[in-house]
Amino acid sequence: MSINKVEMIDDRVRVKTVMVSVFDKTGLEPLVRGLLSALHTPLILSTGGTFTALEKILGPSGSILRQVSDYTGQPETQGGLVKTLDFKIYLGLLTETHNPSHQADLARTGALPIDLVVSNLYPFEEAVAKAGSSIEDARSTIDIGGPCMVRAAAKNFHRVAVLTDPADYTLILSEIASDGCTRLATRYRLAQKAFRLIARYDTAIAEHLTATPLDAPSVYRVLEGV
Question: How do beta strands 181-183 and 12-14 pair?
C-alpha cells in the first residue's frame, strides 16, 4: 500500500470553503458573522438542522450558504443517517495542496478543498444518562458522520482547521481577521483537541456498551432471519 508522506506544506492557508455541522449551536451566530466579516464571500456547506439555523442567521445568502446534499448530488437518508459521508466531502477534507494528483482529482470531480470544519458530536453520554434509556437509545445516538469528518480534518492539519469546541471560535476569528488565513501552529493545536474529543467519545461508547446487557427481546422484535 502506498502511503502519502507530505514534505511541503503552507503555514498560512486562506479560508474559502467552510463545513458547518453542529449539534451544539452555542456561539454559532457570532462565529458565522465573524467569518463573513473576515472572509467576505466564503462558501459555507451545511446539513440538516445546522443549515436551517444558518439560514435564519444569514437571511438571503445568495451563493454563500449551500446544502451538502446540493453540493454532493446525494440527498440525506431518512433520519439524517447519512449526510456528509461522501467522496467529494472527504476529497475536500483530505486533499493536499502540493499534491498534483489530488489537484487533478479535485478538477475531475468538481470538488472543493474544505479549509475549515466546525463540528461537534451528538451528546451520547447525555442520552444514555437519561432514566430508562435502552440499548437502542444508546445505539441510535452514536454519531458516525461527525467523528469521521472531524478525524479527516484533524489528520489533514497541514491545510484544514477543525473547530470542535465553541470556546475556540474567538481564537479562529482573531486569527483570520487580518488576512483570512489560518496558521499551522493553530491548526495543529486544534487537531490535537479534536483527536482527544474523538478518543473520549469512543471510550464512552465502548464502556457503555460493555456495561449494558443487550436484553434484546425487551427492546427489539427479534426475527429468526436466514
Answer: antiparallel
CATH classification for the domain delimited by 12-219, as one of 3.30.360.10, 2.60.120.260, 3.40.50.2300, 3.40.50.1380: 3.40.50.1380
Residue 180, classed as helix, strand or coil, is coil
pLDDT at 1: 65
Q: From residue 80, how far is each of 29, 85, 123 by CA, in Å?
A: 23, 11, 16
Compute the 3-state secondary structure of the chain and give helix, strand, coil in percent, each to the nearest 5: 50, 10, 40
DSSP H or E segment with residue 128: helix 124-129
pLDDT above 90 (res 132): no
Q: Which of 57, 46, 47, 202 is nearest to 116 (CA)?
A: 46
Residue ranges of domains in the chain: 12-219
Element holding 183 (H helix, E strand): strand 181-183
Phi/psi of residue 162, nearest 5 degrees: -125, 125
pLDDT in tens, 100-127: 999 999 999 999 999 999 999 988 888 8
pLDDT digits (tens, 9 = 90+) for 149-182: 999 999 999 999 999 999 999 999 999 999 999 9
